[in-house]
Structure formats: structure tokens, C-alpha cells
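Suppose you are handed only these lines of text.
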Amino acid sequence: MNGEVGRPISRLLADVDGARCERKGDRRVRIDATPENLPAVLELLKGRAGYLHLSAITCIDWMDDGEFELIYHLWSYEDRNLVSAHIRIPREPGVYLSVYDLFEPAGFFERDIHEMYGVFFEGSPDQEKFILTEWNGPPPMRKDFDAEGWVQGTFQWEDYRPEWLQEIEEKGGGIAIKPEQARANTRKIRGWKQ
Amino acid sequence: MNDFPLPVRAERSNPLARVFDELIDFCRARSMFMLHYCTGCGAIELPPAMTSRFDMERLGIQPMVTPRQADILLITGYVSIKTLKRVILTYEQMGSPKYVIGICSCTVNGGMYWQSYATAKKLNEYLPVDVYIAGCMPRPEAVIEGLRKLMGEIKAGRANSWERYFREYDRYLAAQQNLFGPNWQTPTDIIGEARDYQLYGPGTEGRHTELLQQHQVPLQPLRMTLHSDVEKSS
Ligand code: SF4
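From them, the structure of the protein bound to iron/sulfur cluster can be written out as follows.
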């Protein structure tokens, strides 16, 4: 049965323009949809294929492409299969439709994404602050938010070379990789500006 | 950090009083109630430390559920900025003498969350910390070792960094305001308490407490109603 799970989905989506379906593993199917046809795709999956459970909506910030990727993860209890529907929306203005009317849990996911990335979901019941109730900065998960810069400008650091450590160092012990060096290495590996 | 060194407690000349002081310190070190406000993942090492395997109670350390009755505030791991506010509120409600233990590297310097926007870095900036127990996460042996160190300090009469919070309130408030914004206010009147406990020092008041007093809103008693005004959203 496993091998056949993918086929009904691709047949189901045959009528939807621009939706591609690809089997990624035993229990995983990837659908590439467009912002226009995603609601139709989700409706078909829910109504005709038993994908009743929206387990998460993921957002990825592709800053260089100027796009947000939204991924809707749907689970079918009958087929025991996970379908991920991917769309990309322009980063500016970063507005998309809510799927709250189809899947009620989407309200939470959309609120969370709105808080973390600033994507606005039209028709979502509540786009108020969710977890970061006391945060007034920009949406922190956007790639253009420089978390490290913010941290360096906001916090003090504990002294890394206290007296007792110097005593240990004299005896040949101590920290193997100095914190400044470790941070510089991280920046180099990740290609951040020094 | 130590702009204002704490005055060393002078030994009293009356030998009987000295014995009494020592007895008090000994008893204090031997019956500590620990408020376990588990902030981060380091808390997972506390159940084994408290229960039969390592059994903290044989050292006289017991968990306590309310801040008013607790002696030790154990910060077990990263404190997010939101949590830090609650930690400070809790700390201010505890009766003196009170001790803060920072378990985990995250309380020292943010640990592996050092570049996170959500985690406060240096706990010592916001509260006077007595003992740090480094490690990610420290094992129960290390936790107990740290507690024993604190007990030793209390017994020797040296564990009085809680006085710093009163004597140098301005400095702690400065760090708190830096993080929470200039409108930060807690229900506890630290300056009044400092006067009351005769712990008013040169650093108690300053620029930041002035700022606090400018916008401080007097506390109102909470209105009690039988039925909730909040409409249930259906
Ligand atoms: S030091 Fe490690 S174990 Fe402790 S709170 Fe931080 S991440 Fe968790």
C-alpha cells in the first residue's frame, strides 16, 4: 500500500494548474504550489484525501530571493502520510491569505509566523503578539535582523579572564579556545561580516 | 563590579553574643529552603539531586513553594528576558537573608544562547548572585557541591551579597531599565526597605532610581469581583 499513497494525490492535483507533486520518501510527499492555488490544493487534500490534520506551518526567509517560503504540513491518519505544500510569496509586502477557515489550528501558526517574520495573514482571527509579548523590536526571525549585533549592543559580558582562571592558566590549564576566537571562527564559517 | 565593597560584619565583643551569632549562622546554613523556579533545561538535574539518589535533604536543603518562605533562589538555566522580569519580582518578594544560585553556563554569560535576542546574558547584572555552578548542565554532584560551598559561606558569615541589592540598588535598576525600558517598575519599594533594614548605602539611590520615581505609579489593590468581566469568546 505504501507505494501507492502518492498516486491518488497526484491524480487529485491533476486538475489544479501549476501544482506539482513529488514523492520524497515512504511517507512523505512534497507539493509545490503557487500562492493562487494553495487554498484549492489544501481544500482538495482535506476534502478528498483525508488530510485532516494541519500539523504546522513553517516559514523560511529567503532574503536574497526576496521571498518568504510557507510550508503547510498536512497529516493523514488514514494513509499515515505527511504532505508538505510549499509556496513562495514576495517578501514585500509579505501578505498572504489565512487558511483558518479550512484548518482552525492555522490561527496559532499564522499568529506565530506573523510575530516572528512579520508576514500578515488576511482573514486570520488574531494577529496580535503571541509569545514575544514584551518584545518591541523587529520580527526577530527575519534574516535581516542582526541578532548578534543587537545582543552586543544590549548586554554586558561576564569577565572571561577572572583572577582565579589566571591562576589555573599559570598551571597550564584554562580555556582551550578563547571566546573571542570562537566567535570569530563562527563568523568566518557562516560567512558573516567580521 | 565592586564599587562599594560591603562592610565586613564586625565581630561583637561580648563573647556570648559572638557564640550566638555563630549559632545563628550555623543554623541558617543547615536549614535552607530552596525556591525552585525552574527557568531552563538545567532544572532537569534537580530531581535526582533532590530525591533519594543524591538526597539534598540530608544537607538540610528542602524545596519550598513560595518566595516569601524561601532562602535560596535557584536559577536553573537560561533566563529569557520575559522570565527575568518574573525572577526579579520573585527575588524582591523573598525575605532577607536570601541567596541566589546560578546553575548552568547560561546564567553566567548566556551559554549557548549567547547571540540570542531573547535570553538575558549576565544574571549577576540584575541580581546579586552568590554562587555560580557552571556546566551545561552541571551534574547533581556539582549542584550539591555548589550548595555546600554556599553553606560554608553562610556559616562563615560571608554570604551577604543580598545586601548589595539594597546598597547598590541603582546599579541593578540601571541594568533592569536598560533591558526592560525606562518604565520598568516592581511592586516592592526597595529604597524604603533599604532604609528600614539600615542597609541604605551610597549606591542605593541615583540617576536610575530618580527615573523610577518619576513615573512610579502607586500600587492599587486588585479589584475583586465574583464574576469575571471578561466575556468568554465563543
Ligand atoms: S547551560 Fe546548557 S543545560 Fe544549562 S540552561 Fe544553558 S543550555 Fe541548558
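What can we learn from it? The domain at 2-145 of chain A is CATH 3.30.460.80 (Beta Polymerase; domain 2). Strands of chain A lie at 20-25, 28-32, 53-62, 67-76, 81-90, 95-97, 120-122.
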